[in-house]
What we know:
With 191 residues, the chain is mainly β. It contains two helices and ten strands.
Amino acid sequence: MSNPARGxxxxxxxxxxxxxxxxxxxxxxRVEAVRAYLDxxxxxxxxxxxxxxxxxxxxxxxxxxxxARMVWPVRAGFPSPAEDDQEEAIDLNALLAPNAEATxxxxxxxxxxxxxxxxxxxxxxxxxxxxxxxxRIVVAVVDGEFTVKRLHRRDGxxxxxxxxxxxxxxxxxxxxxxxxxxxxxxxxxxx
Length: 191
């Protein structure tokens, strides 16, 4: 049996994301959070949004959960005797996202920053409120494409440098578009 409504309304693939859509049930209490999440997606080169894992929203940020922080360092060499002292607790929200409204999580794809400790599949904590500075690792948009590189100024020109010998630096030439989307503040890895 055919659907008489099929083909009516907006043609398939012509919406905001230029791809087929799917109906999904969302709890009424979360509709605004889903809308805010979708509205926060930056455009990809094809205009359909970016690979964005999450943006802390004021309404979606859980209350601070403090984790115990021990006083002594953990040695990576020879074991040391354990102590019973604790420092103040750590709030991961405050540690990872001091500018919560401007902080995003992005998953890395590729190996161009591996010698800076950023590997394929890692999650970057990116703060859009920070000023990009020479030597900082940034998420940049070059001619509509997202990339993570170290920002450098060379002879009055901007360069985006990889941290891997197989990837040459991106030296911007006249007419190329560059936008520094945010500054990488932390790398989250699985072990």
